Amino acid sequence: MFKKILIANRGEIACRVIKTARKMGIQTVAVYSDADRNALHVQMADEAVHIGPPPANQSYIVIDKIMEAIRKTGAEAVHPGYGFLSENMNFAAALEKEGVVFIGPPSGAIEAMGDKITSKKLAQEAGVSTVPGYMGLIADADEAVKISDQIGYPVMIKASAGGGGKGMRIAWNAQEAREGFESSKNEAANSFGDDRIFIEKFVTQPRHIEIQVLADKHGNTVYLHERECSIQRRNQKVIEEAPSPFLDEATRKAMGEQACALARAVGYTSAGTVEFIVDGDRNFYFLEMNTRLQVEHPVTELITGVDLVEQMIRVAAGEKLPFAQADLKINGWAMESRLYAEDPYRNFLPSIGRLTRYRPPVEGKTDGGIVRNDTGVYEGGEISMYYDPMIAKLCTWGPTRADAIEEMRLALDTFEVEGIGHNLPFCSAVMDHPRFVSGAITTAFIAEEYPEGFAGAALDAALLRRVAAAAAAMNRVAEIRRTRISGTMDNHTRRVGDDWVVTVQDEAFAVAIAADPQGSTVTFEDGEQIRVESDWTPGQPLARMTVNGTPLVIKTGKIPMGFRMRLRGADLRVLVQSPRQKALSAHMLEKVAPDTSKFLLCPMPGLVVKISVEEGQEVQEGQALATVEAMKMENILKAERKGVVKKINASAGASLRVDDVIMEFE
Q1: May I ask which residue range the UniProt record assigns to the signal sequence (predicted)?
Q2: Quick count: other Cβ atoms within 10 Å of Cβ 637?
Q3: For a disulfide at 666, which of 260, 360, 408, 644, Cβ 3.0-4.6 Å?
């Protein structure tokens, strides 16, 4: 077994590999850029080597710098994680030449399957069903439009060397095909150093289901069942689960056997994933093979009990797989929510800054399940604009799908993140969405269910009452504390009343509170009683309660006459007032937000790639105005309505903050 391995990556996946290596008694070497000097993976590793400036194309994907770090530290093997150099044949070849073991597949398999165009051709030759498309190289935007017209819209424009949603666009017409080709080409060049693009038919109403395979160097190949990855936004996975709620045993077996056959055909070893598009009749089509560890591998580990990173290391060291296909059973259900530094209230645009608070839920066994959090950040650390926006992968396991979802609901409500915009509220809202709960999902779920973006979830009537009761009980605790302030004048003791009005989500609940040493019983006007028990004290940002015997966790903060409460994807302003205060508040004026309709504001911190219009130019609704790049993704900003450009305040190359004015309109 290896004594020392180098992890050619950063963030949560580097931390994940270090954990398993440490368990196996293997020393680890981290590499880091200027931006990652204080990163968690650097702190966790036994050694760390600086490899250059923040941009990945000057550090993490420069093969010579990684090779220099290997020579400097004497690492015997390299784990590439995912992204960066993980599917780079030249990197695998360079390691082989140096006599260093690549913890991954042979360079020939990377070449064959890592390139999406080549892999599709090989799959077709092997008799694997593939999606219709154009597999050749595409010269320019004009040719891309011509090919798209021939295939028929909608089409998927994809970077050949792509992954993680980078370099991917769906085009529904010729204009979108032209814009999508140019953006995909630029993103692919910046992220992978390879700007080749291909186009295929976009199958409507599809499910994205993938098969995890594992193969050793002794001819043994197995599949570890499937992962459902259909909850995606901009082709980037947000929530995954294993197994899929859609597959039957026959389809699962057929997909698994086909994935293994494809792996054998290219002499594959190590862990890899074969991705399929599955239609409503359970017909499946080969999409691509990722010759690396997938981001969402933890859900497979939770239902099989197999440590995939450990098996990758053991396979690379020449060991045989310790199990056969018949040994790999599905145990329970697992969910994964990807926590991204993206603001759901600003159309999921990237958010950077310092994590002023980062408190994930406690990992390990719960009353009926398991909580796991794979992360690469810490409280006080910074989220950089240079890399992928992922902060953490929160995973839960339960005996059934419903149990795993309930575990995830509680874990998400318990997860505290402050200082940046993030998608925790959105993940929470999905867990409560009836369509997700039923399992009737496709890759179009987010686009169909949130067509206008995400503005927060609305709680149902039953949960709303539980929140109102909790707020009333918490307010009573806060009021009692205020009456006990020392130094008050004699004979000025204030009595805390029993009658209150709780206003939440535009509903007012008149309640009466009866308190005892164990908690409070809150009685509503219609006679319903809700029991609230908690050890919460004012100032605690997380209120853990038992409401009518079931757990309720709320992120809470003080506001005048009430609380800001966040749970289940809702961000609530909850007022708790005496009946007299409630009556008087009806006469209060509300502040009106300023009108910004005549400005194009930068929606996220980023770099201006292009200004597409000129001063004095008339623009039409939907016309491209500017392109801003952030976290390796290009974002085209379009006109919301017809107008005339009055003034342009930014130019290509400018670095902007959130809400900086790019241009003004007449």
Answers
A1: none
A2: 19
A3: 644
**What's the pLDDT score for residue 157?**
92
Give the whole-angstrom CA distance, residue 142 versus residue 378. 47
| Buried-state track 168-207, b at ≥16 Cβ within 10 A, e below 16 | bbbbeeeebbbbbbbbbbbbbbbbbeebbbbbbbbbeebb
In angstroms, rounded to a whole number, what is the distance separating the alpha carbons of residues 29 and 87? Answer: 20
Residue among 182, 241, 288, 406 flagged as catalytic: 288
Instruction: Indicate the pLDDT class of residue 635, thresholds 50, 70 and 90.
Output: confident
Q: What is the pTM of this model?
A: 0.83
| pLDDT for the residue numbered 487 | 63
| Closest of 321, 318, 297, 323 to residue 309, by C-alpha | 297
Examine the residue annotation and report whether 288 is marked as an active-site residue of this protein: yes
Using a 10 angstrom Cβ sphere, with 0-12 exposed, 13-18 middle and 19 or more buried, the burial of residue 451 is exposed
Model confidence at 31: pLDDT above 90: yes
User: Integer distance in angstroms from the first to the last C-alpha of the chain?
Assistant: 69
Token digits of residue 522: 């809150």
Q: Which two tokens stand for residue 23?
A: 């368990």
Rounded to whole angstroms, the Cα distance separating 160 from 148 reads 16
Residue 116 to residue 131: CA distance in whole angstroms: 12
Tell me which DSSP letter residue 56 carries: G
The residues, any chain, with a CB within 8 Å of residue 640's CB and separated by 6 or more, are 621
Are residues 229 and 287 in contact, defined by beta-carbon separation less than 8 angstroms?
A: no
d(CA 666, CA 99): 65
What average pLDDT is seen over the chain? 92
Whether residue 145 contacts residue 180, with contact meaning beta carbons closer than 8 Å, is answered with no
State how far the Cα of 196 lies from the Cα of 187, in Å rounded to an integer: 11
**Burial class for 310, CB neighbours closer than 10 Å (0-12, 13-18, 19+):** middle
Q: Mind listing the pLDDT tens digit for each residue in 225-284? A: 999 999 998 888 999 999 999 999 999 999 999 999 999 999 999 999 999 999 888 989
Question: What does the block give as tokens for 112?
Answer: 């064959």
3-state secondary structure of 141: helix
Helix (H, G, I), strand (E, B) or coil at 555: strand
Contact (Cβ atoms closer than 8 angstroms) between residue 496 and residue 483? yes
